[in-house]
């Protein structure tokens, strides 16, 4: 479970950014769905990659 923590933290950060952008830009419909689908996945992937590089497990 510990190996998933960087991904989960990044996904949470991506979700928070998606909520913030959705509220600021007042998005609805398809653009909002795309935002909520992509940002958590991208945030999780980036956080996991950074974590792996820092620990030297690339």
From TrEMBL:
Q: Which domain of life is it from?
A: Bacteria
- Membrane-spanning ranges: 7-27, 33-50
Q: Does the keyword Transmembrane helix apply?
A: yes
Q: What is this protein called?
A: Uncharacterized protein
**Keywords assigned:** Membrane, Transmembrane, Transmembrane helix
């Amino acid at each position: 479970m510990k190996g998933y923590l960087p991904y989960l933290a990044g996904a949470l950060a991506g979700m928070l950014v998606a909520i913030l952008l959705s509220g600021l830009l007042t998005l609805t419909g398809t653009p909002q769905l795309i935002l909520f689908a992509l940002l958590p996945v991208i945030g999780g992937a980036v956080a996991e990659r950074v974590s792996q590089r820092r620990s030297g497990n690339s």
